[in-house]
Amino acid sequence: MHELSLMVALREQVLAAAAARGARAVTAIHLRIGRLAGVEPEALQFAAALVLAGSLAAGAALVIDSVEARCHCRPCAAPFEVLDGMCVCPRCGAISRQLLCGRELALAALELEGLEPDP
Predict the structure, then answer these.
(1) Residue ranges per structural domain of the chain
(2) CA distance 85 to 23
(3) What local confidence, expressed as pLDDT, does residue 86 receive?
(4) Residues 6+ apart with CB under 8 A from 86
(5) What is the DSSP string of 26-93?
(6) What SS3 class is residue 117?
(7) What's the predicted TM-score (pTM) here?
(8) 15 phi and psi, to 5 degrees?
(9) Could you tell me which CATH class the domain 3-68+102-113 is placed in?
(10) pLDDT for 38-91, tens place per residue?
């Protein structure tokens, strides 16, 4: 279950960002995860509860924005949605080698509580 190691790395990012802003707590963690990133959202949710326990982010909601996979078809000069992991253009049948999006795994935003006021 590599989601556990992903959450350990994510915890470090989250806690560093919260500390830099002087937050007392993290109430929500927003992630962007591509459909082809190889991450199981349910496993990530489970790992989050374990990894974030006892930290400023304990109990934080993990909000996952799923990113559709899209490729670019060179013959059609147009993007198309990847279905079932197959990069085959639905218009012309060409196989694309250019993935535009869908492998993302990014920390998009944090919701913090008890921020220190800006000077």
Answers:
(1) 3-68+102-113
(2) 40
(3) 85
(4) none
(5) EEEEEEEEETTS---HHHHHHHHHHHHTTSTTTT-EEEEEEE--EEEETTTTEEEE-BTTB-B-TTT-
(6) coil
(7) 0.83
(8) -65, -35
(9) alpha beta
(10) 999 999 999 999 999 999 999 999 999 999 999 999 999 999 999 887 899 999
